[in-house]
Amino acid sequence: MATIQETETTVLGACPHDCPDTCSMLVKVKDGRVTGVQGNPDHPFTHGRLCAKTNHYEERVYHPERLLYPMRRSGPKGSGQFTRIGWQEALDTIAARWKSIIAESGAQAILPYSYLGHEGLLNGLTVGDPFFNKLGATVSERTFCDSGACTAYIMTVGPTPGMDPESLAHSKFILLWACNMLSTNAHLWPFVAEAQRNGAKVVVIDPFRTRSAQLADQHIRIRPGTDTALALALMHVIIRDGLVDRSYVADYTVGFDELVEHVKPNTPAWAEAHTGVPAAVIETLAKEYAQSQPSAIRIGVGIERSAGGGQLVRALSCLPALVGAWRKPGGGILQLPLWAFPMNWPGLQRADLLPPGTRVLNQWELGRALTGALELDPPIRSLFVYNSNPLIVAPDQARMRTGLAREDLFTVVSEHFVTDTARYADILLPAATQVEQDDLMFSWGHLYLTLNRKAIEPEGESVSNAELFRRLARVMGFDDPFFFRSDEQMMRESMDWANPALAGITLESLAGKGYARLNLPPADQFAPHANGGFPTPSGKVELKSSIAAGGNFVLPVFRQGSNEFQDGSPAALLPTWIPPREAPKSNPALAQRFPLSMLSPKSHSFLNSEYANLARQVEREGPQHVLVNPADAASRRITEGMPVMVENARGAFRAVARITEDIMPGVVLAPLGYWAYRSAGEATPAALNPTAYADLGRAPTFSDNLVELRAAP
């Protein structure tokens, strides 16, 4: 007798990824299986569309290589050979090893490593923090993304959402600075396109002619790491030519007189020498930006990834105040509107559980920490990785691989697949996908709170991160009820529901619609700083930073001709030019060996290293490639499609050459995300990336990266 088929149902979900769009998803389910996903057509930002990464999310859920059961390593580290075990055996093994390590070396010999492989308030960035804080493990300092930009932005305008992203539709002039919106923030583009149709000019500043640049009105190519020189020159022209909104500056800024003197040397001709942008182009850009109000600046997360990235964001955050862009909806700067969400960060992180004096280790140091190049007492004896794939996304790849191969390092990885990092695990734990768990999603790219409901039971024995840490707390003997809260309890405690921004929004109302806009004015009325009111110590835009003057953190200053910084300089109180560490002009000796600047941005079809093992996305992206200007290719006798080696003193990787005028001479571009063990040569661009910090927030300096290119043997 034939079984009666269930009717297909729709479950309200939310994309879990580290992306500003945080899409509202409709998950189609039949017979307990996901049959497809689509963007929610009712959501004002998602508009019924998903991206090239998540359009077929069910393929990720049911991929034949998905990790579905706990596993124990059965072959050499790195071999990817594992044997299935039960959850209790896995947990008991972890607990026994950790208790032994703690008894012999102390809890700081254990290092958690995670980032934004999931962005939810339940299963994302902070899910493991309370557990590891209670354990007393080394604190894993996460400064992968926007730490420098956030530091600089807060120094200047405070933790304000600034612009409503949707208000870009009302802008008259839009600067997309180091932001390939169509690949990394695609759902914002329709608002830009609407402004463009209404007469706004869209300008993209980027060394590469991105998908976004191809649709812009103007593309300005700039040498990597020199953007601060351009921003200071824009200030110079705006002040010199009397384009300043005098009343706005007088009422709502501090430090203007000092800034006037500070930028006098930063002429367009001076900036041209550093940036390669013609002085005449700089003059015109400054005038159009100042005179086309409201004007908007959208910055990308990669903007901070050079030695002076923080100072660049300081400069860009000053510009809207100089021209009065904040006066109207559609004016200002768009960094991270997440500042509008009243998250209960203390409750999510539980820093109060940290034992006094707990060691902090930045994630850039992992390779050195695991190999003894960084002297640690106690050394790292156990590594717990979740929500990340450090062997592919972090720098120092060769050294990290050596460290992960240590037989005395007890490594646990929670994952969807056996990634490059997971291949070195002693114990593998199966993680649930977004359609198999509940979560509450804030956004760093719009003003909507989104609820994700579990659509199906987890495949195999996979569990959510929230459940994983409940199990770990139990096996480690924790007795605080905090560690055993239900998902609903965690949601209710994750935000300040009494905050006016959440007025009228409850979990119950979210369950009915799936999303809600924060209780803020609509986009066409959203101008929160028309009359100042910046959340800075002065209440104004701090052209001259009182935070820096207070000495709360170090503002290093680059020493010309050196690869080192010196601490302290009064000039750092104002936006200051810091040249890239690795560039032909600022480091000619290194450039003699490695004359090309390498960029390694996110690819169009991968989300960092996620989806780089799925056939649909890999077919779209092709093999690991490097974009080369025809002039640079010709001088090296490199032709289209030729296998090449990209190398510097830190490492090398193999790629296919793609020759194009879209990349400026002297620069090569190799998108990140490809898995090493699936690539020729088993190395990726991460093998070449530096571990040095930028000027603020311990941000990375991946764009300060000189390399050479040669035909592969």
Provide structural commentary.
With about 725 residues, this protein is of the alpha/beta class. The protein has 3 domains: about 180 residues, 3-Layer(aba) Sandwich (Rossmann fold); about 240 residues, Dimethylsulfoxide Reductase, domain 2 (3-Layer(aba) Sandwich); about 120 residues, Beta Barrel (Barwin-like endoglucanases). The chain contains 24 helices and 29 strands. Strands 5-4-17-16-15-6 form a 6-stranded mixed β-sheet, with helices on one face. Strands 24-28-25-27-26-29 form a 6-stranded mixed beta barrel. A 5-stranded parallel β-sheet has the order 10-9-8-12-13. Strand 18 and strand 19 form a beta hairpin. The radius of gyration is 25 Å and the shape is globular. The protein starts with 8 loop residues before the first strand and ends with a strand. About 5% of the residues have low confidence.
CATH topology descriptor of the largest domain:
Dimethylsulfoxide Reductase, domain 2
Helix content: 25-40%
Proportion of β residues? Answer: 15-25%
Task: Based on the coordinates given, report the CATH architecture of the largest domain.
Answer: 3-Layer(aba) Sandwich
Major sheet: 6 strands, mixed
